[in-house]
Amino acid sequence: MSMPPVYLPALGIVSALGRGRRDVAANLFAGKREGMRARSDLLSDGVPAYVGEVTGDLPSVPAHLGFYESRNFQLVIEAAEQIRAEIEAAREKFGPARIAVIIGSSTSGIDRGEQALAEADKTGRLPDEFDVRMQELGSVGEGLARYLDLAGPAYTVSTACSSGAHALAAARRLLAANLADAVIAGGADTLCRLTLNGFRSLSALSSGLCNPFSRNRDGINIGEGAALFLVQRDEADVTLFGAGASSDGHSMTAPDPEGHGVELAMRAALADAGCAPEEISYVQLHGTGTDQNDAMESRVINRVFPHGVAASSSKTQIGHTLGAAGAMGAAHCWLAAHPENRDGLLPPHIWDGAAAEGLLSETLVRQGDQRGAARPLFLSNAFAFGGNNACLVIGGQV
Fold this sequence. Notes:
three-stranded mixed sheet, Peroxisomal Thiolase, Chain A, domain 1, 11 helices
């Protein structure tokens, strides 16, 4: 039996597209990608790599939480502060013990570990201020709960690139089980040398700007950012109707070419939401720009939506934000479904237009495309290493 829907009244977001929902929405729908830039300090041999970077200053970490200090924690604080008023209203209504925190992340503060090791290599000792909790995966959810002085369940989900989507699905389960009355859920990840060089070792990095679903695609760009939602039972403008997950275990890194596990997750999300494929008016694709992912995802989309469906990947504009990717995809659906999007714009697919047989092309969203009179009911895909897949159905009012 499906769980009841839950509602997403507030979104805090920071990415290569900007800060705050209005800034991000304006740049998303306009097809901007100025946040994608080349850096030569991330790959071990100094070769430039394009990344989706958050620019400008980030909030400071309070002194009493200094053992969590990292760029990742700063991104989480930035997103949380954007919805601080809604969080405080929930605290006033439910009490701090009834508000949970679930954050998806795959890098946490590993960049602080990299910096500490670099100094140890020079001096023979780790910096005095370094604390292992700065890079420990579980510190993301725990740290945010302490920062907000909340006392409900708090933990971090780390299932690689599906982490943020799983965090939202877990928030819905906590509410259904009456273990919380509100949840702060989403994802955050930060640029670091470990992930850039790791993906390069897999021959997965693009030599330029990524180009999903093009015959000229050659890999991914890594990005950073955070997207956090307030999740409640009380009705709001945007709804999380359903979630589906699977773990096909086809390979440590490569997807099942036929996408059987991905299809299970997509159909499970639709069934959980109680809707047919024909009711979905837009799909936020995982769309990484690698040969294997785009071919697999195209096959599955064509099987689940044989009638065709508007679709796009936002990774051309923000990069692949890894543990935050599922939350970022959900956030872009939230922005498209929210009443503030008065023109009903859909996130565009920015690419070179070089179609190839078997790959999605005709239904990819062009800049300025609108959902029309269709009900804003969207599917967001997030796939990860090991065949760990998560899909969400998100919608707005008719």
